[in-house]
Design goal:
With 222 residues, this protein is of the alpha/beta class. The chain has a single domain, classed as P-loop containing nucleotide triphosphate hydrolases (Rossmann fold). It is 41% helix and 26% strand. It has 9 helices and 10 strands. The chain has an 8-stranded mixed sheet, sandwiched between helices. β6 and β7 form a beta hairpin. α1 crosses α2 and α5 packs parallel to α7. The longest helix has 24 residues.
Length: 222
């Protein structure tokens, strides 16, 4: 799971990951629920120049489900006839998924939407495992109230709670601007962003360093 406070930063990082996969001939299925990736793709002629239209059609599938079609979109990914081994499946974002599944803004319906989202994530995990794909789920942190000793404080935390933590093999967080600048006080700040590895599941096979930092250059294709 890739968490971020800033929606734009997480989309730019995904843009780089998708580009890398296409450049080596791997397939990407992208569930663009918040439409930010599609907007960035539309306004990036450099990306289209680097990856010609034919390659994009062969290796990149972008799904943009309507308000009432999110379940059908997931089924379309699961039943795609041209699924090939390797590459990515991206669910962007869990926030929008839960919003689309929620019929009413009450506690009961929110729990139901969370349960339905868990089922859809499980199905995507199964198809990703079957085809040796990496499933990336994005999560934009939201401010939530916390009560302590009679007072209430607000703090930003990932959406999905225990369900998403339980289902995630690797938890990643995009460092916000202040954290990024603290890490690069003596460097020229370019268009790049650091991603912190918060946790790696014991069942996840990964060569990533625990508590490490991944560095993304955001100047490419933007």
């Amino acid at each position: 799971m890739l968490s971020s406070i800033d929606p734009t930063s997480k989309t730019e990082i995904l843009f780089q990951l998708v580009s890398q996969e296409i450049s080596i001939g791997l397939q990407v299925q992208y569930l663009d629920l918040d439409l930010q990736f599609s907007s960035m793709l539309l306004h990036s002629p450099a990306f289209k120049l680097e990856h010609n239209i034919r390659n994009m059609q062969n290796f990149l599938r972008v799904y943009q489900p309507s308000e009432f079609g999110v379940v059908d979109a997931v089924i379309d990914v699961l039943s795609e006839s041209d699924l090939r081994d390797g590459g990515l499946i991206v669910l962007d974002s869990i926030n929008t998924l839960q919003t689309l599944l929620r019929q009413k803004d009450d506690v009961t319906d929110s729990k139901k939407a969370n349960h339905e989202a868990a089922i859809l994530v499980t199905l995507l995990q199964q198809i990703a495992q079957r085809y040796s794909k990496l499933l990336i789920i994005t999560n934009v942190s939201r401010a939530r109230p916390h009560s302590s000793e009679g007072s209430v404080s607000w703090a930003k935390e990932p959406v999905g709670g225990r369900m998403m933590r339980y289902k995630s093999g690797i938890l990643l967080t995009v460092l916000d601007k202040i954290q990024h600048e603290e890490r690069h006080q003596n460097d020229r700040l370019g268009r790049h962003r650091d991603v912190k590895i918060d946790a790696i599941s014991e069942n996840c096979k990964s060569n990533l360093p625990r508590d490490g930092i991944l560095h993304f250059d955001l100047d490419s294709f933007t």
